[in-house]
Amino acid sequence: MGEGGESFELPVAALSVASGADQAGVRAYNERLILSLVRRYRQLSKMEVARVTGLSVQSASAIMNRLQTDGLLRRESPMRGRVGQPTIPFSLDAEGAFSFGLKIGRRSCDLVLIDFDGHIRQRAHEAYSFPTPDKILDFVARTLPVITGALSRRQLQRIAGFGIASPFQLWNWDTETGAPPGALEVWRSVDIAAEIASLCAYPVTLFNDATSACAAEFFFGDGWRHRDFLYFFVGSFVGGGLVLDGALYPGRTGNAAALGSMPIRPRGANDDQIVQLISAASIYQLERRLSAARIDLSSIWRTPDSWDDFGDHLTAWIEEAAYALAYASLAAIAVIDVKSVVIDGAVPVTVRDALVSRVRHYFSALDQRGLSDVMITPGSIGSDARAIGGAALPLIKNFARDREVLFKDAQTAPV
Predict the structure, then answer these.
(1) Phi/psi at 343 (nearest 5 deg)?
(2) Which residue among 66, 172, 184, 232 is buried most deeply as judged by most CB within 10 Å?
């Protein structure tokens, strides 16, 4: 029984796709499979796990007991009121594993520690005018010891790794970030993952920030309900991610679904006026509107979940961004036949919901002949998706099914 009492079915032939013929390989696969199922459905009994995996009740029971002993699963209170013995559900033990996530943004950076359930246990935040490696490394050097110093010895031993969610090719965006000419060139020659690794004792994983946000939606949010979906994250610069056939798809260089670079025609523009999506559906464009009107815009990055009242300037930005996102969605589904388009961002929930509503409106008015129907829906993580997604990467590597870890062989591009 899934969350909210919903029924579910999974292929009974799950065991047939286990990688490796040795017993240890099958055991590792089955453990990861069960952890992924419990994560997805919140609570599962041994009988339910056996039914959906094709494992015998004895095998499912043995694996789940072992995972409980290892501190990864937790036995919940028996569910009484049914015929026969009470059903005992299991859930993830939030203390079973922890992970750090660093979001490197154009206007701010965040370092979070999440638990096995994906909840933020501790965090540090810092704003800046534009990002440089020195600023990021100084931030991590100052804040990481503070966070680890508050953990118990057992918690420290259960840190799975350190994930970095960063835009790629930062040096290309100095004009849009407001950085002085050439100030971001230093990113060309810096291996930020190696530099971070020198500051901590954990394995470091680097991934594109929007793809990391997509990973958070898929691993911790409602994204698993959509087997295939295109993902937009509206941050200082808009970016994207892609889930295909139930797995995060980063592409050859980790830069798949680089939707910010997609060519679109802006709202009200001439037919021959083509720009990149990044110039029409990014928060930096709202910043420019507010700055031109001499309005304090500091709450955009100081409190991303609660902006000041920006009035007509915000409304106008939503309209422009929504049309551009609708246009980009139409172009994308003409290439990749996804069922859903998920939109999230570093914006308050009310702004995100208004944006999704207007995307639906503009999308419905576009010429969709020859294309399949698509559902446009809001994301479920919010402004912390990139940081949580960065922290999700080590957890996915260590505990998710192989099928969900397509990014493990991707060659990440330079930051």
Answers:
(1) -125, 125
(2) 232
Q: Which residues pair with 230 in a beta bridge?
A: 242, 341
What structural domains does the chain harbor?
A: 3-92 (1.10.10.10), 97-214+387-409 (3.30.420.40), 222-380 (3.30.420.40)
Distance CA 273, CA 197 (A): 45
| CA dist 228 → 74, 214, 231, 247 (Å) | 31, 12, 10, 8
Rounded distance, CA 180 to CA 353, Å? 35
Give the span between the Cα atoms of 177 and 279, in whole angstroms: 12
| pLDDT score, position 125 | 94
| pLDDT at residue 6, as a whole number | 37
Rounded to the nearest 10 degrees, the angle between the axes of helix 23-41 and helix 385-399 is 150
Residues of the chain with pLDDT under 70: 1-26, 80-86, 402-415
pLDDT of residue 288: 94
Helices (H), 150-298: 153-157, 174-177, 192-197, 209-219, 283-292
